[in-house]
Amino acid sequence: MTGNEYCALHRQSADKAYNALFENYCDYVYAIVFNKLRSTASREDIEECVSDIFADIFFGYDLNSSYNGDMKGYVGTVAKRRAINAYHSLTARSGHFSGESDDYLAAVSSDSDIEADHDKQETRTLLLRTINELGEPDSTIILQKYYYDRTSGEIAELLSMKASAVRMRAARALDKLKTSLSAVGITL
Amino acid sequence: MKEKREFEILENADDKNIDLLAKVPVLTRDEKDRMLRMSRDKLNERTKAADTEEQVSGVERYSRPKWHRFVSIAACAALVAGLAGTAVYLSRGKKPAVDDPVSEITIPADEITSEDTDKLDVILKDLIGGLNELELITDGGGVEVDESDRLTSDEISPDYSYYRVTDERFSTVDDVVGYFRNYSSEQMFDYRYAMEIYGNSGNPLFMESDGGLYFNKDDAAEERARSYSIGSSAEDIEAVYSDIGAYGIYDKAIGFSVPAYMCEYPCRLDGKLILEGGSWKIEEYSVDYLLDEAANNVIVSSLLFKLEEFDMAYTGPGVEVDESDLRLTTNEGGVKRDYYRVTDQRFGSLSDVKDYFDDYFTEDYLSINSSLWEGYGQKFIEADGVLCYERANTNVKYTYISEPVIENADETSFDIRIVRERYPEGFTESMSIRCVLYDNRWRILWATADNSAWHETDYLSLSADALKSFFEIEAVVYGNTLGYSDEPLVKNESGNELTYKEVISDKYSSVSDIMNYISDNCCDELLAHYEKDLYVDGAARYIEEDGKLYALDVERPFDKALGAVSDYETLDETEEDFTIRVTPSHEDAFYINVKNVDGEWKLSGCSKY
To answer: For chain A, what is the HEC assignment?
Structure first.
């Protein structure tokens, strides 16, 4: 959705604009927030953060703007900022300072870990590519179960499958994934 | 949990990887609606605050909601301890089905002899029975609870029902884990059950609170489980060990292949047992629905039979009615429908119709084909409380004429390819049927018919039949090819003298014979045209007298033999109609139109263009 499209829709109906923006970017925002808060926040916290982000955008976007580009960049920036704030807020309250926090501070303070970061990104990319190569629905099941922490029942409902079938597929897919990854030197 | 830690590498991903993760469908409609609602509420609050000129800080304080984590971390630690190598046995409560067979087999897998396989059969039966229970518990059933003691608080989503466990097997989450580990290996527990038992951050299967254990019960779980049992009764199972080594022994594990039942479907259960912590556990298993024997497979045959029944009810004379008991006539959009009282034993009411097919088709399929019982053009209808059916004026029937072939099979879906023939047209259709395992039953998701081959072959045979009828009718109406006697019959009509000759024909002995032949082979509009042409200047071409058929003695230029030497081809073929282009030698081409009327192909027109 472009900025102009959003503004034009907003002129017709604010509700329609909010709904359209949300539908367009909800999955993207959720992915950003979850990726940051996965190890520190509950599902409800994550939902709260996502709703804060959209409230920010609904409230803060300049409707007189003549920006005609994709709003994804703007949405992504607001989402990342909010997610990082939420992360620090949560970790500060729990008195917990994780490795991720250390990485973040180190990254802010110096560029000495750029190479390590680059390696990690390469590994992530390889992992995701290998997961993708499992094909559907296994790749979706693997990420939903082991990354997004969804139960078999929840996954089953989303994919119109039986929970036991999801578990079966997840177990097999994980085996396959481990085999594929070990062939490229990655151990899960 | 091991798997969760592995995927931590995906955290703090870059934009490219975030984009990939964003493509995974994870949010339900309810979750999205909830977050959108929350966003709108927050927007309203901010707008109100802005309107009252309260300054909203550019950096919002993140106020953590009231949700809190459950005992997952503590439970995680217990699991780690439990995996340290010590076997976890059930120490109280329900005993296994067989009196502790575990202790009878303590030798390593590679030392098992034939005398031990009987004992292994017992173990396998017990483990499979346990597996059923683990699946039931994981689905939210099979645990005794006190439904008057429900855990409620702001921290628990109203979507979940946590009741205090009264089941003597479980007092703590540790007990649950121990029970599960009685039947499943460490790997199987981690892969299949750990996530469910501990939950992620909000909805574990079990939770400890107020000194008690609570269970997230699903009322529908027991209903589902009644039809879901891997394995037949203990007495019927006879384990067949896979042929890897003497008894399928490999890598300190034993493979097994067991005849089993999934609901009423015979299948085979394949898996692996390992000796872990001194006792045998299931390491993995899979269900094979024996689809390689498609022709004898009860799943395949029952689905094909139901599809045939459904199509017959939808398009043909598939429902018994009392044809003398017309109960209702409707006229929708100019289309008249007559509904007769249903006498078919399968259906007593409108809801019976859907229920009858409910177990064999998915909701999607039934929804797409719901005009069988509702909506415009519905075939079944209730009139004054009586179930009625629109008796089709066709006799369309389907017959499968090939063996079913199974493709793309896995544990939860497969495709059937089969050929069926449609009567009375006689054309064949290559069917492709997608079947899925949903809610413990195999169901048809969609079915398509590819009759493109029909377009190449059957049109030709239809054309041949149509041309034969066309030339016959033309000859009767305009030709002079019927046999005649020499004795004329002279009639005087309105002052005109008309001469008739007696028709000598095996085919036509009355005017109605001729009319019936024409009407059987022509659409109404063409029939009207021929009826008109059966009069010449007001005089009928055919009359009957003294039980004999006479033909008007007039010039009849049409040469039926023309049809025998004509070349022809079919054009513009559709399922509704097509055109035959006839090219007689030494004459200009002409066109004959053929139309499908309620399943019968009839002549509908003839023209030079």
So the answer is: CEHHHHHHHHHHCHHHHHHHHHHHHHHHHHHHHHHHHCCCCCHHHHHHHHHHHHHHHHHHCCCCCCCCCECHHHHHHHHHHHHHHHHHHHHHHHCCCCHHHHHHHHHHHCCCCHHHHHHHHHHHHHHHHHHHCCCCCHHHHHHHHHHCCCCHHHHHHHHCCCHHHHHHHHHHHHHHHHHHHHHCCCCC
